[in-house]
Task: structure prediction
Amino acid sequence: MWVPPEEKDPIVLQEPTRKSISVFGAACVNDGRLVTKFSKPFNGVTFQEYLEQLLNHKKDRLEMHIILDNSKYHHAKLLQPWLEKHSDEIKLNFLPPYSPDLNPIERVWKLTRRLCTHNRYFQSIEILLEAVDKRTINTFGQHQRYCAGVATPDPGEAPPMAEFSMKSPVAY
Result:
């Protein structure tokens, strides 16, 4: 921070806290749909709840492929029975370590940070949550192709599978 030499003790308006919000998010690479869920703890239980929410967005005849990083809770042992039960509907595909640039949801988080939180002061976590929730939903509709990283498929062409790209947690 730059301070003019004549000013001795600058006053910085900032809360001395390190609060954050965490969001599960998935962007469909075929049509750009965004599915999010705010969650305080990130663990196997909350991840399974989010997968169940994602299944509600699955098209009937398509298998859903989810692209994931290698977070610990993505490999939770308590998920295995649920994944086996839904193995004909959902497949988890893991990215190589240290390759977040391969995950299309990272574009959504980058755009969210730039448009919602970058260089802004929020007096409370509730105001931050409201800003992120409203701006993400509103802006994503305008930037679906950029965020999903795909072009719209031909109208007569049916995509072979519904792929969702997912990253979690996001701290702002």
Observations:
- The longest strand covers residues 23-28.
